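ok so i was messing around last nite and threw this chain in just to see what happens. nothing serious, just curious
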Amino acid sequence: MPRSHGSDIDVLIQLLAKLPGLGPRSARRGALQLLKKRDSVMVPLSNALMAVADKIQICDVCSNMDTHNPCHVCEDYRRDRTIVCVVEDVADLWALDRSETFKGLYHVLGGTLSALDGIGPEDLTADSLMARVEGGEVKEVILALNATVDGQTTSHYLAERLSGTGVKVTALAHGVPVGGELDYLDDGTLAAALKARGDVR
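result:
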């Protein structure tokens, strides 16, 4: 079957299709837009990708990804250094920080405990979290892990390890989302919402 573009463009489409949320059709549309806007989008994007690829590092303190080490979050003197929010992945850190409501520091675990996948405590950054806590500056650890079986198992494991340190251990509330209608929520979400109910002020 004749092709309407060359092999180099095929490679571009295949690479774009590997990105989350992009299938073959979306990748083709994206590639076409890049080609049409070569000077204003494609070349600057290429330069930005090369710059990030050369500079990206894992933060020695919190395991965030940044072009600086320590990362911009850890270096921000305005943040409350007595509170550390523990998340599974860098994407979770970015999502929470985008809300601009949390002013403390973060710690990226790099996953969750999973017997099925063979992921144990040694595969996570739990030891470096404990080292941060034992440094004496941290007063509260927020466990902001996903409400999955593995996430809850990991939360219990961390809470157990932190129990003897004297720091306050809290977790994100789970339940009815803002704007959510009860009729559309699953049983687990409703049960969590009832369990986490609070006083009406």
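not much to say yet. The longest strand covers residues 80-87.
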